[in-house]
Amino acid sequence: MKTLSRSFALLLLVVSLGAAATGTRAPAPPRPVAPRGPLSAEELNNIAVFKAASPSVVNITALSVGRDFFSMNVQQVPRGTGTGFVWDDRGHIVTNFHVIQGADAARVTLSDQTSHRAQLVGVFPDRDIAVLRIEAPKAKLPAMSLGASRDLQVGQKVYAIGNPFGLDQTLTTGIVSALNREIESVTRRTIRGAIQTDAAINPGNSGGPLLDSAGRVIGVNTAIYSPSGASAGIGFAIPIDEVNRIVPRLIRDGRMVRPALGVTAGPEGMSRALNLPKGVPVVRVAPNGPAQAAGVQPFARGTEGGIVAGDVITAVNDDAVTDFDDMLTALERYNPGDKVTVTLWRAGKTRKQTATLAESDE
């Protein structure tokens, strides 16, 4: 036993000498963690807004029908992703029209990662708005709180939640950089009153909510301005006041039922050629339509080829009208059957007429 003990002690001595020779030491203990103190009020608000809003934000996958090259089986394949948010507990989901444009179907993934096939309820491409619907338990469909966009101020803090580049449930922060911007929809119609923000908005954020510091939706993120295609600090959102006017109509009617005056506008350049004021020169009035009932007269050619003066629409209620797009935007604030006051200019004289809007055939 003594011989064995001496051998073991000698072995330990050799190992110790070898370790000392090679410089190997026992690892140092980890450094203590410094206390950070309480989170700032701003950080706490960021966290609270995200926790409250994120369950209502969804991922939308647009699907197209494709044929497998080898098996020739027809199947649905992803063609793009975007964001949406829960509008109500009936399963209505609001997103951008361009997120699902050209798709054969769509799939909605909720915050708990459950996936649901979506049904198209209605679209309004002129404002880049679409409404989908899914079948899911009400407990999984917390509707987002809506705010107002009409009283926003430059400098207010905003949050964007979405799925940029397919990375779901991403929060970015910024401010309202500017108001009343104009952006172009997929139909080339002008979307007025857009909110500009420097909150990072990237591909995949489209259709997601822009929130104020109270966690209310104040806009729907729809576009970025960037030479590279990624966030460059300039993003745009459709104001929630506009969205809240359109979405209930899409849910009710399946489409945006346009109110109409029953007039046809003159060609571009007509006002300049005839030295007319800014507005909509009327070249045709629909028989038995609202404009005819209100006494609106179109421009026409006389028997000798000259121009017979007609009316130029310069305002609808309190909204000035400078062109046909302006007039459509003003009329879309109302419903068929509403009465509006139309300001008309003819041969240097201005008058006001009341018209009862009809339903457009479009």
Q: Could you give a quick summary of the protein structure above?
A:
The protein has about 350 residues and is of the alpha+beta class. Helices cover about 20% and strands about 35% of the residues.
Describe this protein's structure:
There is one protein chain. The chain is an alpha+beta fold. The chain folds into 3 domains: 51-140, Thrombin, subunit H, CATH 2.40.10; 157-253, Thrombin, subunit H (Beta Barrel); 259-359, Roll (Pdz3 Domain). It is built from 7 helices and 22 strands. The chain has helices at 2-22, 41-53, 97-100, 240-253, 270-273, 290-293, 324-331, and strands at 57-67, 74-86, 92-95, 105-109, 115-124, 129-133, 157-162, 170-184, 190-197, 209-212, 217-224, 235-239, 259-260, 263-265, 280-285, 300-301, 307-308, 312-316, 319-320, 339-346, 349-356, 358-359. Strands 1-2-3-6-5-4 form a 6-stranded antiparallel beta barrel. The protein is elongated, with a radius of gyration of 31 Å. The model is unreliable at 8-15 and 67-77 (pLDDT under 50).
Outline type: elongated
Main sheet summary:
6 strands, antiparallel, barrel
Give the termini separation.
Answer: 105 Å
* CATH 2nd-level architecture of the largest domain: Roll
Report the uncertain regions: 8-15, 67-77
Helix proportion: 10-25%
Strand ordering within the main sheet = 1-2-3-6-5-4
CATH class of the largest domain: Mainly Beta
- The total of beta strands comes to 22
Q: What class, by secondary structure content?
A: alpha+beta
Order of helices and strands: HHEEEHEEEEEEEEEHEEHEHEEEEHEEE
Q: Helical element count?
A: 7
Instruction: Write the CATH homologous superfamily of the largest domain.
Output: PDZ domain
Radius of gyration over C-alpha positions, nearest whole angstrom: 31 Å
| Structural domains: how many | 3
Determine the oligomeric state from the structure. single chain
